[in-house]
Design brief:
The complex is a heterodimer. Chain A is 75% helix and 0% strand. Chain A is mostly helical. By secondary structure, chain B is mainly alpha-helical. The chains are: A mainly alpha, B mainly alpha.
Chain lengths: 237, 104
């Protein structure tokens, strides 16, 4: 145990970093539970999916596909495509988690989502963050998601859509985390490029390829621009 | 669908979700990464956040068409500026929700 941190403190700080995620997950999870119920998947069934898969958008798509009578192979393939973006997040997390024991990573990888990734990477960057706090973020979000989907299946949506602006909780969190990621000019340029490429890509090509496509192109362009700026002696940061 | 078939489906979905989350982390964290890869990976969070967020603000979900007049987009601007100024995640989330409640 490090002197600056106790398990208690990690738990508290991790959970408090996760609250915007939980706030956003609850209504979405309940909506998924309701849809699943209508598709013939009861609370236990959808809860089990949230435990074994834990991937918001892929679960919505899977429920719709099950309802439509799709084959298992096509559902699994779609899940793979929709969740492939996590490859990038997993790779980026390898930098702050360098040298961490494999056993820890086996557990940690389970909880990598768009939301937990955004929160943890921002915190790692700000400092005073470690793998245990990051793991608490994962499992707090995961637990909320599982409970929300089961609750939705049992009682329906408790929160009517639109109330208290709760539908904007996750977008607002992403907006704020994006603002916190802008540490310098090159980050601003990369983020702007990614935003523009993603919008154009999505308008031209239906499906989810725009996420990975725009992120990889923008990071590569940003990387090349920074390298160029350095080689010509200009300030790249 | 029988419960057994459903469980098999979930195991399939679970593996194709878990492995992409695990493998890059497992392999890249155990070695010294070249400088260029670290530099590139450093830009991934901002790139992927912007790529996830931007289309959801300016593209209408159902029609898939560009719409710059959406509430989601316009209230993103004060939310972004507030977050930039205050560096407060919680405050920004509450502000965004409040604006969306008022104007959404």
């Amino acid at each position: 145990m490090r002197t600056s941190s106790t398990p208690d403190k990690s738990l508290r700080e991790g959970a408090s970093a996760a609250w915007p995620i939980c706030l956003g997950y609850f209504p979405i999870g309940m909506a998924l539970g309701v849809l699943a119920q209508q598709a013939g998947l009861g609370p236990v069934w959808i809860g089990l999916m949230s435990v074994l898969v834990f991937a918001g958008s892929a679960q919505f798509i899977a429920v719709a596909m099950i309802d439509g009578g799709a084959t298992a192979a096509s559902i699994i393939f779609t899940t793979f495509v929709v969740n492939f973006r996590h490859v990038l997040m997993s790779g980026a997390l390898a930098v702050p988690l360098r040298g961490v024991k494999r056993r820890f990573l086996l557990l940690f990888a389970y909880g990598i989502t768009d939301e937990s990734f955004a929160v943890n990477m921002t915190r790692f960057r700000q400092g005073h963050w470690d793998r245990w706090r990051a793991l608490v973020v994962h499992h707090t979000a995961n637990l909320t998601w599982i409970l929300a989907t089961i609750t939705g299946g049992v009682v329906g949506t408790l929160i009517p859509p639109g109330s208290f602006g709760i539908d904007y909780a996750l977008p607002a969190m992403f907006i704020a985390l994006l603002a916190l990621q802008l540490h310098g000019r090159i980050y601003l340029v990369t983020g702007t490029l990614a935003a523009v490429i993603a919008v154009v890509w999505k308008l031209l090509i239906p499906g989810d390829s725009y996420i990975v496509g725009a992120a990889v192109s923008a990071a590569t362009l940003g990387f090349l621009l920074r390298r160029r700026a350095f080689s010509t002696g200009k300030e790249g940061e | 669908m029988t419960f057994e078939n459903y469980l098999l489906l979930l195991l399939g979905m679970g593996s194709v979700t878990y492995l992409p989350r695990l493998l890059p982390l497992l392999f890249l964290s155990q070695r010294e990464l070249p400088r260029w890869l670290v530099d590139w990976l450093e830009l991934i969070p901002v790139a992927i956040l912007a790529a996830l967020l931007a289309p959801s603000l300016v593209i209408e979900g159902d029609s898939g068409r560009l719409d710059l007049l959406r509430t989601e987009f316009w209230i993103a601007i004060p939310t972004l500026l507030f977050a930039w100024k205050t560096r407060s995640l919680g405050g920004s989330v509450l502000l965004g929700m409040m604006l969306f409640w008022l104007f959404g």
